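Dear H.,

Thanks for agreeing to be a second pair of eyes. The structure we're designing against is below in token form, covering all 162 positions.
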């Protein structure tokens, strides 16, 4: 099977999905940011100078996912029907775990939207906290699960390793 984003001459193009069936599509992406104990406490207490870190990061993640097709070349513009960003604090590791769930009914999946949403949310946390901790680390960004479309359901085996 050849690459789907190139024509016969090797020119990049957006894949034609017009003949594909509309199906409900859902994707969940996850990632983490690690920070100092002092920084995590300020986030939890709501005492970071820039305000409600997780509230702003949630909105930023949703906005980022909505703009996915503006950021990633050849990514289809989608009519998203759900975007949700959630956070879990893991005090033992000074970590904030983020997830982004994207949903649509359409001809192509929402994996890139979920991955963009979780990444923008984590970058926003970094931006709002960098005055307190410049050593924060963002990582472990991955597609956790997806459903819909021709390829069906996918559950990342990484989930079972954790």
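And this is the sequence the design step returned. I haven't edited it by hand at all.
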């Amino acid at each position: 099977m050849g690459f789907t984003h190139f024509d016969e001459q090797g020119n990049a193009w957006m894949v034609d999905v017009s003949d594909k069936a509309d199906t409900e599509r859902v994707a969940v992406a996850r990632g983490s940011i690690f920070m100092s104990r002092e920084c995590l406490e300020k986030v939890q207490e709501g005492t970071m100078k820039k305000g409600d870190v997780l509230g702003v990061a949630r909105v930023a993640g949703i906005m980022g996912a909505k703009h996915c097709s503006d950021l990633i070349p050849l990514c289809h513009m989608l009519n998203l029907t759900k975007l949700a960003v959630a956070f879990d604090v893991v005090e033992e590791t000074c970590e904030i775990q983020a997830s982004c769930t994207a949903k649509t009914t359409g001809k192509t999946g929402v994996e890139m939207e979920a991955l963009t949403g979780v990444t923008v949310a984590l970058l926003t946390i970094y931006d709002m906290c960098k005055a307190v901790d410049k050593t924060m680390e963002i990582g472990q960004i991955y597609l956790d699960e997806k459903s819909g479309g021709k390829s069906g359901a996918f559950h990342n085996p990484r989930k079972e390793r954790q």
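Two observations from my side: The mean pLDDT is 91. The first strand starts at residue 23 and ends at 34.

Warmly,
E.
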